[in-house]
Amino acid sequence: MWQALYEELADRSFVVLAVAMDSREGDPLPWIEAAAPTYPVLIDREHLLAEMYGVVNVPQAVWINEAGRIVRPAEAAGSYEGFRQMDRATREVPSSAAQLTARAKTTYVSAVRDWVLRGADSEHAFSADQARAHLPALTEDMVAAQTMFRLGQFLMRHGDAREGARWLREATTLHPDSWCLWRQQAGVNELGLAALPDFWERVDALGNRRYYAPVDMKGMP
Amino acid sequence: MTTVLTESGEFNAAEAEVAGDALWLSAGEADAATGWVAKTEGLCRGEVCVPVPPGREREFVRGSRVNVAALWRHLGRSVAHSERGHVWALGGSARDRAATLHSLEAPDFTLPDASGRPHSLSDYRGKKVFLVTWASW
């Protein structure tokens, strides 16, 4: 999704750092090979970024300027939950929802481009106060959940699947807003996607809440 | 053998003693796994020292041993351990993480790419970084 933008802007002191929030050994490798991006793709088995930046889902992005300062904290990166209107039998998405998803992507990509070209003058670059106002909450429960997650991951990798799975479940109970945590203990379908009935049950349980928290950006659905 | 997981990695503590929620490491192992050592002024890591709460000394230090789990909780950091007590995860503190984010200094990290080569965020200082998560699902 970001390759074209990276190629376009690579000579403008800009880099894309993609981070796979994957814990299952080898899972991301075929995807990395298939996409063959020319920007770095890192693997965050322990979900360090969840704890450091408050990442709860993918794709989420953080904008960081040349001085290493956060310009936009973690937010949904050009995604819209159009899939919630999918016909679950045919996997067809109504065109109205597909249009919103497409608009989220083009709006977001344009905003990143504008920031790369115009820096702090871009209307999409938050001031320090704005950036602070948009920081995700980092709670004791979230951090405790990440610690349990790490313990569970270690146990699973070292032959204790039963107890490992227990800690992954406890982590997702303690930090239910994280789809990243939940997915690491969810089943996957024949496409390798965590979109079995338990996924849809969890989506339905959101009710009126959003799957991706709304992004404060002009033109975003 | 007891395994201690910290932000900097995995550490095998052959001399560890586990008693319920206490993880007693030898002075050398506590230092190697966490960087914290017992001194006369309290428990210290580098220049930073945290006094041991009066009257509760034996919860934290016994002879040359340090209860790093008690220390972690005292620092407001999270601790989780396996049912058998053979694996301990020493996590971060929500207060510290939130304070770091509030400074807007992007927290540095080092993660491997698919070939195992490590990349740090700070390697890219001087460029605008679009840090974006994804997953194979």
Task: Please tell me about this protein's structure.
The complex is a heterodimer of chains A (221) and B (137). Chain A has 221 residues and is mainly alpha-helical. Chain A has one domain (3-204). Chain A has nine helices and four strands; from the N terminus they run H-E-H-E-H-E-E-H-H-H-H-H-H. Chain A has helices at residues 3-9, 29-35, 48-53, 95-118, 128-133, 140-157, 161-174, 179-183, 197-204, and strands at residues 14-20, 41-43, 60-64, 70-76. In chain A, strand 1 (14-20), helix 2 and strand 2 form a beta-alpha-beta unit. In chain A, helix 6 (140-157) runs antiparallel to helix 7. Chain A is globular, with a radius of gyration of 18 Å. The mean pLDDT of chain A is 90. Chain B is an alpha+beta fold. Chain B has a domain at 2-94. Helices cover 21% and strands 39% of the residues of chain B. In chain B, the strands form four sheets. Chain B has a four-stranded mixed β-sheet, with helices on one face. In chain B, a hairpin with a 2-residue loop joins strand 1 and strand 2. The longest helix of chain B is centred in the C-terminal third of the chain and has 10 residues, at 94-103. At the A-B interface, strand 1, helix 2, strand 2, helix 3 and strand 3 of A face strand 10, strand 11, helix 4 and strand 14 of B. Strand 3 of chain A pairs antiparallel with strand 14 (128-134) of chain B, so a sheet runs across the interface.
Secondary structure: elements and pairs:
The complex is a heterodimer of chains A (221) and B (137).
Chain A: H1 3-9, E1 14-20, H2 29-35, E2 41-43, H3 48-53, E3 60-64, E4 70-76, H4 95-118, H5 128-133, H6 140-157, H7 161-174, H8 179-183, H9 197-204
Parallel strand pairs in A: 1-2
Antiparallel strand pairs in A: 3-4
Chain B: E1 2-6, E2 9-13, E3 17-19, E4 22-26, H1 27-34, E5 37-39, E6 42-45, E7 48-50, H2 57-60, E8 61-62, E9 65-67, H3 68-74, E10 79-81, E11 87-90, H4 94-103, E12 110-112, E13 118-120, E14 128-134
Parallel strand pairs in B: 1-11
Antiparallel strand pairs in B: 1-2, 3-4, 4-9, 5-6, 6-7, 8-9, 10-11, 12-13
